[in-house]
Amino acid sequence: MTLTLRPRLLDRLPVSLAGVTPAALAGKSLRQIEQTPVWQGNRQLPLAELYEVSGSAADLHWRLEGDFSRVHNIASAMNEGAVHVAGDVGRHAGQQMRGGKLTVEGSAGDWLGAAMRGGSIDLQGDTGNHVGGALVAAKVGMRGGRILVRGSVGTHAAERMRRGWITVLSDCGEWAGHQMRAGTLMVFGSCGPRPGASMRRGTLALLGGAPELLPTFRYACDYAPQALALMLCDLAEQGIDAAQNVSCNVAIYNGDLLEGGRGEVLVARG
């Protein structure tokens, strides 16, 4: 039976669920789960004081129902299992994930999937800044896994990304792919200014049009990459209609030339 959490009351104080993952609670009884300490503001409280807990954690499947917009670090460092949130979530959801799946029916705060290494995130709504980005003072950001954002994202998406795949079905803010090392960021909506600034490697696929690129990017050719066709086919198999309406014919720009010029920006033709 799925473990279900529902807020007992809405409080303005933030709550952190860091370390509270399906694998961490899998072998515990319902009573033990209710006594799991979590941080609310600057104090620790039993989980049951903040949330109504029901079901079992044995099958590694969780369902969170209600407003979790002030609850941070949901599914942080998760390595297996599934967390389904029927509502909004706070900052750092899916941060440093290594496996499993996080599904959010609402929106999310900043740092969604930051420093992620594996697993998948499916967000139905919008999210803030630094999707799949690097934590403060870290050299690299996302290093594996997949993030699908069906709404829009803020600034610095895929910042210092090393591996993985991020798909944004709506609009993306400025500084997309800033200092990318590798990996793929695919945007179906419009993109803000300065995409790919200081990128070393990796791919930015701007399929909904692009702003004027920085002068440190150079046009290479018009092409229909087979890898892009395969990725669009994968998205179409997931029922994403936008992937069926996009042409694989793109203009390819190489850059950032100040960082060696090994990155690529794919811009939809027409």
From TrEMBL:
<dbReference type="InterPro" id="IPR036485">
    <property type="entry name" value="Glu_synth_asu_C_sf"/>
</dbReference>
<dbReference type="InterPro" id="IPR017550">
    <property type="entry name" value="Formylmethanofuran_DH_suC"/>
</dbReference>
<dbReference type="GO" id="GO:0015948">
    <property type="term" value="P:methanogenesis"/>
</dbReference>
<protein>
    <submittedName>
        <fullName>Formylmethanofuran dehydrogenase subunit C</fullName>
        <ecNumber>1.2.7.12</ecNumber>
    </submittedName>
</protein>
<dbReference type="GO" id="GO:0046914">
    <property type="term" value="F:transition metal ion binding"/>
</dbReference>
<keyword id="KW-0560">Oxidoreductase</keyword>
<dbReference type="GO" id="GO:0018493">
    <property type="term" value="F:formylmethanofuran dehydrogenase activity"/>
</dbReference>
